[in-house]
Each structure stands twice: as structure tokens, then as C-alpha cells.
């Protein structure tokens, strides 16, 4: 993956699997992973839209493909089968030029010491899932939407044990940190313990917060940063969750987050093939212009900020 990143300068990821499956008839409370066997055509439809829109990397429909999540649907004995099937479907859509990344989401359990699932048991569950993804022939593994460092560690250990390259993202959705209080800087420091190819942020609370998160990771020395932000802000409308992001919003976010230092760029919840297409066009047609958070929030041409700075200097 890093070879292709070096050639192109950035990589386009994909959009949302879950919210697009809901558009194709998945009902809230159903297991999206069960569709890898029951409705392979619909899962492929989502992959195909992203491949046609310009994805360099697509993620398998296995976000909840660990035994703890699958147990909610009495599918905990099909972990290997469902993960293997998902990779096969993604591969059929990816062709030779697009990479297939095996998606790994949280267990859904709270990990010790706050919760009851031990780190050892979490790692065992992730190892089971990663072995299914590896058997299926994934090019790399993709840990996402994590909020707890102990769980992230368990997932990274499991991913590393396969010998495949892997990437990891956390969701910074609670006042700039993860739900469990991990800051972007702490996350960058933590990832130095693992041989991950790339790491960064996904999901969260909309493009603006994600720009801030990526800017902080860059300042903390983060490399090969991933940005996979939601398509705007979720709102509850007519009995369902909808996302407010337009194609223009997502294109702007893609360009800005690239300039802040993200190299692997895609969308999370609510992002369709159309959004992704707009993002890919924007990235292709706008050369990289490195920007820092400070430049972004305080442009040099802004006379207000100049006078504030002068005032501060003169009083010191
Ligand atoms: Zn999301």
C-alpha cells in the first residue's frame, strides 16, 4: 500500500458500508455481515459504486465481524465463514488495481478495567476475525472506530500476528477526544508501539472536527495519516438517520484534510459513491498545498489576527 501511496501522493479510500446497505434494505438491528452470505449482490453493489468513483482501497463488509458482535445475531459460530466471504465479494469488485482491506470494528464490549472483557479475550476474538480475513485473501487489515487504547492494542496485536500490513483509526467524537478520553496526540504516541502502515481518524462528528483532529495528529508527528470522516452531521429525519453533507462539502473536506497532512482519504457514515466521486475529482484537480491548523484558523491576511498579535507583542 505504501508503494502506491508514494507513487500517487495520496490514496482514495471508500465511503460508508453500513449506511449504504440501509439504503438497499438492511433493517436496523440486522447484522450487515450476514448479507455477505444472504445478499452478496447488494454488498457488491456498494463496493462497485466506490470502485467506479475512484477508490484505491475498499473496506470489506466485516465491521462487526467479531464473535462478540455476531453473537447478538446468533452468528458467533460463523466468524471465519462471514469474514472469508466478505473478502471474496470485495475482491470480485476490486479487480487488479484496487486494494482490499479487511475491516475490523470494536467488540462492542467494555474492556477491563472498566468493563468485563479482558484484553486477552478481546485479542482472541480479533485473532479469530483476522484469520478469516487473511484466509479470504485481504491485502491488508483495517482497524477502525476504536475508542479504547486497550482494545486498540488487542486489535493491533491480532492484526500484526497475521503478517499482513495493517492500518488503525480511532473515532474522536467526544469533545475532540475518543469516547474513552484518548486525544489525537496520545493516539499518535501510542501507535509508535506498532508496525502499522498508516493510522488516523474515522467517523466522529462531521468534517470540521475531523480537520482539527488530523491537524493535531500532524503536529504530534503523525505519518501516513488516515482521514475517513462522516458525511456531515447525522440528523434524525422522517424516522431515519440522515447525513447533512453535500458532494461539495465532502470535496472541500477532502482537499483541506489532504493539505493538513492526511494521505489516505475517504468518507465514513453517509458517504455514497457520488460523494466519493466528488472527493476524488477534487483531489485529482487540486495540487497539495501544505497547511497547518494555525494557518487554517488564523489566515495571515486577516487584519484582526495581526492586530491581536501586535497587541500581545507590545504588552510583553
Ligand atoms: Zn462513521
Question: How would you describe this protein?
Answer:
This protein has a single domain, classed as Homocysteine-binding-like domain (TIM Barrel), CATH 3.20.20. The longest helix has 18 residues, at 119-136. Mean pLDDT is 93; it is low at 302-316. It has 14 helices and 10 strands. It has 316 residues and is α/β, with parallel strands linked by helices. Helix 4 packs across helix 6 (79-94) and helix 7 packs parallel to helix 8 (149-161). An 8-stranded parallel beta sheet has the order 1-10-7-6-5-4-3-2. Bound molecules: zinc ion. Zinc ion binds at residues 203, 230, 268-269.
Task: Give me a quick take on this structure.
This protein is of the alpha/beta class and 316 residues long. Helix content is 47%, strand content 15%.
Amino acid at each position: 500500500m505504501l508503494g502506491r501511496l508514494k507513487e500517487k501522493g495520496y490514496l482514495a479510500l471508500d465511503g460508508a458500508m453500513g449506511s449504504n446497505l440501509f439504503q438497499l434494505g438492511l433493517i436496523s438491528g440486522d447484522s450487515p455481515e450476514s448479507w455477505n452470505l444472504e445478499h452478496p449482490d447488494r454488498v457488491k453493489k456498494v463496493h462497485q459504486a466506490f470502485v467506479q468513483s475512484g477508490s484505491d482501497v475498499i473496506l470489506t463488509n466485516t465491521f462487526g465481524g467479531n464473535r462478540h458482535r455476531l453473537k447478538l445475531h446468533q452468528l458467533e459460530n460463523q466468524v471465519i465463514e462471514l469474514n472469508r466471504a466478505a473478502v471474496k465479494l470485495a475482491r470480485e469488485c476490486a479487480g487488479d488495481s484496487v486494494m482490499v482491506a479487511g475491516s475490523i470494528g470494536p467488540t462492542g464490549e467494555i474492556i477491563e478495567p472498566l468493563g468485563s472483557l479482558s484484553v486477552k479475550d478481546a485479542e482472541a476474538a480479533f485473532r479469530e476475525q483476522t484469520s478469516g480475513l487473511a484466509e479470504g485473501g485481504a491485502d491488508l487489515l483495517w482497524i477502525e472506530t476504536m475508542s479504547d487504547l486497550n482494545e486498540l492494542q488487542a486489535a493491533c496485536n491480532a492484526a500484526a500476528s497475521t503478517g499482513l500490513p495493517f492500518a488503525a483509526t480511532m473515532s474522536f467524537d467526544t469533545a475532540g477526544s475518543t469516547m474513552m478520553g484518548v486525544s489525537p496526540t496520545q493516539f499518535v504516541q501510542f501507535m509508535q508501539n506498532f508496525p502499522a502502515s498508516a493510522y488516523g481518524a474515522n467517523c466522529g462528528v462531521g468534517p470540521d472536527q475531523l480537520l482539527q483532529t488530523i491537524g493535531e495528529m500532524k503536529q504530534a508527528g503523525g505519518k501516513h495519516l488516515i482521514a475517513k470522516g462522516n458525511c456531515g452531521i447525522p440528523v434524525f429525519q422522517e424516522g431515519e438517520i440522515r447525513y447533512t453533507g453535500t458532494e461539495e462539502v465532502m470535496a472541500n473536506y477532502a482537499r483541506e484534510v489532504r493539505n493538513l497532512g492526511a494521505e489516505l482519504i475517504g468518507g465514513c457514515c453517509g458517504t455514497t459513491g457520488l460523494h466519493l466521486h466528488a472527493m476524488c475529482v477534487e483531489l485529482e484537480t487540486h495540487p497539495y498545498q501544505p497547511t497547518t491548523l494555525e494557518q487554517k484558523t488564523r489566515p495571515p491576511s486577516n487584519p484582526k489576527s495581526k492586530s491581536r498579535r501586535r497587541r500581545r507583542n507590545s504588552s510583553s
